[in-house]
Amino acid sequence: MNMSKKEYGEMVKKASPNSRLVSNCVKAFVVGGLICTFGQVLYAMFGALGAGREMSGTLVAVSLIFLAILATGIGKYDDLAKFAGAGAGVPITGFANAVAAPAIEFKKEGYVMGVGAKMFLIAGPVIVYGTLSSMVVGLIYYFVR
Amino acid sequence: MDYIKAFMVGGAICVLGQILIDKTKMTSARILVLFVVIGVFLGGIGLYPRLVEFAGAGASVPLPGFGNILAKGVMQEVDRAGFIGILTGGIKAAAAGIAAAVLFSFAAALIFEPKAK
């Protein structure tokens, strides 16, 4: 193909945002999928140990939260998030990371206004709007059930 | 097969988040809030429980699954306790996740030092 440097540059510019989106999405898909698959492995394991469905689900969430916060503490979750974007952010592990990372980072501002308050920097809004919408659902359910 | 379904559905939900990040410049906090709220409403209308039935951890591990738990909890409490369940059900169902995140994060803040910038 014959094209000038300028044309080539324009072509790259046109193509790259999309190819970047595709590569970001592939990474998010694989990492997010693997985290969920690992959750499924844990679920089967807790089931085999005799936990019921609901209890297994809770134990999976708690285990993933524990591992994500440990990874956050040693600085590894940050690397994963940089690589996988939403693949690391959207699973419950991302929520756990969003609680632990500011708790550690703002330690020097003290245990009350640093660790205690900053823990909810991102988790706070999630809990606020999650709770509010659960009340909307509960209210509607109360009248239509 | 359970593992493949968990992988595919969990991956797909994360891709939705990635598209939102790249296409709308929404901050990740907003996306987390949005996903939980979507999970609550899809849970409320009974769609998300079907996805959990199909994909297991592929649907319950991503944040809409957390929203789904809130919706399930509030409806169970309304059945059990009546009107007051609207207030108590959501947080009650989310308690384990929130308390675990608080406990482990507090411990992490005690043990680990922030990275030097």
Give a verbal description of the structure.
The complex is a heterodimer of chains A (145) and B (117). By secondary structure, chain A is an all-alpha fold. Chain A has a domain at 5-105. Helix content of chain A is 86%, strand content 0%. Chain A has helices at residues 5-48, 53-73, 76-84, 86-89, 92-105, 111-118, 120-144. Chain A is extended, with a radius of gyration of 21 Å. The model of chain A has no long low-confidence stretch (mean pLDDT 93). Chain B has helices spanning 2-24, 28-44, 47-55, 57-60, 63-81, 85-111. The mean pLDDT of chain B is 96. In chain B, helix 2 (28-44) crosses helix 5 (63-81) and helix 5 packs across helix 6. Chain B has 117 residues and is mainly alpha-helical. Chain B has six helices and no strands. Chain B has one domain.
Entry summary:
By secondary structure, chain A is mainly alpha-helical. Chain A is built from seven helices and no strands.
